[in-house]
Amino acid sequence: MAACAFPTRQGSQVFIRQTAEALSAQGHEVLITAYAGGEEIPCGVPIARAPRLPGAGRLRAGPSGAKPWLDAALALKVARTRARFFPDVIHAHNVEGTAVALAAAGGIPVVYHSHGLLEAELPSYLPRWLRALGARAGRVVDRALPARASVTIALTETGRAALIAAGADPERVHVVPPGVAVEEVDRNRARALRDRLCAGGEALVVYAGNADAYQGLDTVLDATARLDPALRVRLVFALTTGPRHLPAQAARRGLGDRVAFLDAGWEETALLLAACDAAVVPRPDAHGFPMKLLNVLALGAPAVVHAASAHGLCDGQTALLAEDAAGFARALDRLLRDRALARRIGTAGRDHARKAHDPSRMASRLERIFAGPVSAERILGPQ
């Protein structure tokens, strides 16, 4: 259950797709319900889409005037799909997907898969004068959804603790780290792309993801501006949504000719991450799990990660951790001057992704969690 255009290259949508595919590979019948719209990306499970309405293909996250209508159409689609197939469980992703699922479940157990706290994310989409109100509204939702869902899944222990602090029953909140499929890329194509972007022999630093405010991209620009010019860095933003304010911000920092913005599909993004000297994950979110981090690790890119988002990583071994622009600049300087260190960290990060974030292991843990509400439903019937 995904209250968004689907599939797309964005982190949550990639996670939803890979989770559904992992559950399908375990022998389960899986159907994804989502808005109309999406990108031409192969998906290994069928998709039931709501009717197309204005705004259904919008890829940028956050509130919009079209959202209430899109959610109403999606709720109707879920209700019709539920009545036709009578699923054992509705696996609802994120706040909006869970709210829609609860409205349309008709007694089917709803599992809330929390990707992060709305209290932390919602203010980032709002003007400054509305942010405190947005945080309070998010807090109310963060308290309400786990109380109504049969079970809640958090991506991290920090996220679980935050949901419990907001009022969730500890016995009904579980932690399942996300999985990632480790893909092989054509190294010759990766080198060719790098040569095109760094024709003067510059070091290649990559950010891959969306350009929303909560991603902390100002930190990356400030860090790049602090680097020794002798390092000759090319900073590439491989974006899933438009750069909006980023080119102007880069120009204000004197980085105009050192930064490139690409509307990159997944294949091109994977090539960039496989070829780069360093990848940056600056999102300062302790409650969620940046899906882009798993892609960075899985492709062996030496990573500089915000310490708040570095769940399970060890500083100096599987990544370099930082908390501000000065820290990111120091970490990038280390990786770009010490290529042996960069190679060791890239290899260790890839090994960590394979061991700690195996999709089949994630799917097995989800199966065990689903079994609780599904068994109760079969014994007691819809309530």
Protein topology:
Blueprint: H1 11-25, E1 32-34, E2 47-49, H2 67-85, E3 90-93, H3 94-104, E4 110-113, H4 118-121, H5 131-148, E5 151-154, H6 157-165, E6 173-175, H7 187-197, E7 203-209, H8 217-226, E8 233-239, H9 246-252, E9 259-263, H10 266-275, E10 278-281, H11 291-298, E11 303-306, E12 320-322, H12 325-337, H13 339-356, H14 359-380
Parallel strand pairs: 1-2, 3-4, 4-5, 5-6, 7-8, 7-10, 8-9, 10-11, 11-12
Helix pairs in contact: 1-14, 2-3, 3-5, 7-10, 8-12, 11-13, 12-13
User: Approximately what portion of the residues adopt beta-strand conformation?
Assistant: 5-15%
What are the low-pLDDT stretches, counting only 5+ consecutive residues below 50? Answer: 378-383
Q: What's the gyration radius in Å?
A: 21 Å
Label the CATH architecture of the largest domain: 3-Layer(aba) Sandwich
CATH fold naming of the largest domain: Rossmann fold
Count of DSSP E strands? 12
Strand order of the largest sheet: 9-8-7-10-11-12
CATH class category name of the largest domain: Alpha Beta
* Fraction in helix: 40-55%
Distance between the termini: 21 Å
Biggest sheet descriptor: 6 strands, parallel
Description:
This protein is an alpha/beta fold. The protein has two domains: 191 residues, Glycogen Phosphorylase B (Rossmann fold); 170 residues, Glycogen Phosphorylase B (Rossmann fold, 3-Layer(aba) Sandwich). Helices cover 46% and strands 13% of the residues. It contains 14 helices and twelve strands. The strands form three sheets. Strands 9-8-7-10-11-12 form a six-stranded parallel sheet, with helices on both faces. A four-stranded parallel sheet has the order 3-4-5-6, with helices on both faces. The longest helix has 22 residues. The C terminus is likely disordered.
